[in-house]
Amino acid sequence: MRAILWTVLLVLSAGCVKRYGDQPALAFDDLPYVGDSGNAWPLKSVTLPGAQQRHGLSTAPNLSFVELNEGGAQTVVFLHGLGSYLKFWRSQLDATAAKGYRVIAIDQLGFGKSDKPAGFPYTTEAFAENVVELLELLKIDSAILVGHSMGGQTALSTAIRFPERVQALVLASPAGFELFSGREQKWFKNVYSRSLVKDADEEAIWGAIRYLNFQHWTPAYEWLVEERVRLAKNPTFDAYAYAQVRSVEGLAKNDFVRESLPKVKAPTVIIYGTGDRLIPNAYLHGGRTATTMESGHEQIAGSALVPLAGCGHTVQLDCAPEFNAALFAFLAKQPVPVKPEAPPSEPAKNAD
Q1: By C-alpha distance, which of 196, 188, 104 is closest to 147?
Q2: What is the pairing mode between strands 43-47 and 166-172?
């Protein structure tokens, strides 16, 4: 199965491409976190004692995130997808902050510059608990969640389990709607291994990123390939590969989210590309992206569905202007939450 998969990707990625295999290894901590403007984002981190307690970890893991425009009246939290990190929102973070929103983008545990503890379960339910714990630590009552792919399933899990924390949902090519049979879940567990992630050759990486995620590839996206190739040469990549394998298993076991979609009460928009090659899974059961997205839309009362014609799975990069237009149109409709006034304090009594 592994040989078949890589053969397919090699065929898909045929052609002249730039190679990065001779470049030095790159550590996650050295990744440049910059937006489209080229300006670096300030990186922050918090420890998650709740995650340590929930999962019996030996230490409290560190979660890395970017925060922009801290004084914004509404908070928008961006959640990345599988195999990625917060920089996949490089076309959205600065633009959203410029609209006046407080912007937070998370590197989930196991990804990017966050810790990658082996004892963490790497399910979207556990990721959702991380989101809520971060909001609590930052004293944010509720936020608008914007999630891509796996981040979309995480956002849905958060909205279902912690509705008071979620003001609205923006689901970008979300996972969570697709049905995986027990046999297909078992296939993921048996086939998708750490070595499959770590030992992927450069042609396969080009195919996986360029073909499976994009319809409008340009050289501006080559950083995606370069970083992936060079990161795999660093010993710290093993922990990431393990996290990705566990996350794939967690994504396939999506019954809780899929069966609980009618419980989502937050205003929701689903933005997806009609040229998505990853959802639904073409290797297991195929189908139409529109059908999968419509199934989720039908179950989330009052949700809006925005198909972007000819756009790929990583829709926020592949069709950034169109995605941003849909994102900001939805955000503009969300009222600023009104915080309840604190009760007046009683006047101090004079001492006799």
Answers
A1: 104
A2: unpaired
Tell me what pLDDT residue 197 has: 84
Whole-number Cα distances in Å, 77 to 20, 71, 102, 235: 32, 14, 8, 30
Residues of the chain with pLDDT below 70 are 1-16, 195, 340-352
pLDDT of res. 14? 44
Q: Could you report the per-residue pLDDT of 39-65, keeping only the tens digit for each?
A: 999 999 999 999 999 999 999 999 999
The residues that bridge with 62 in the sheet, in sequence order, are: 47
Question: Over the stretch 24-39, which tens digit does the pLDDT of each residue have?
Answer: 999 999 999 999 989 9
Rounded to the nearest 5°, which phi and psi values hold at 171? -105, 110
Give the type of residue at 49.
Answer: P
Burial of 266 from C-beta contacts in 10 A (0-12 / 13-18 / 19+): buried
Cα gap 22→162, rounded to integer Å: 47
3-state SS of the chain? CHHHHHHHHHHHCCCCCCCCCCCCCCCHHHCCCECCCCCECCEEEEECHHHHHHHCCCCCCEEEEEEECCCCCCEEEEECCCCCCHHHHCCCHHHHHHCCCEEEEEECCCCCCCCCCCCCCCCHHHHHHHHHHHHHHCCCCCEEEEEECHHHHHHHHHHHHCHHHEEEEEEECCCCCCCCCHHHHHHHHHHCCHHHHHCCCHHHHHHHHHHHHCCCCCHHHHHHHHHHHHHCCCCCHHHHHHHHHHHHHHHHCCHHHHHCHHHCCCCEEEEEECCCCCCCCCCCCCCCHHHHHHHHHHHCCCCEEEEECCCCCCHHHHCHHHHHHHHHHHHCCCCCCCCCCCCCCCCCCCCC
Structure tokens at 30: 């050295």
Contact 131/78 with Cβ under 8 angstroms?
Answer: no
pLDDT of residue 350: 52
> What are the extents of the domains in the chain?
2-8+40-331
CATH fold for domain 2-8+40-331: Rossmann fold (3.40.50)
Question: Considering Cα of 251, then 180, then 306, then 257, what sign does the dihedral take?
Answer: negative
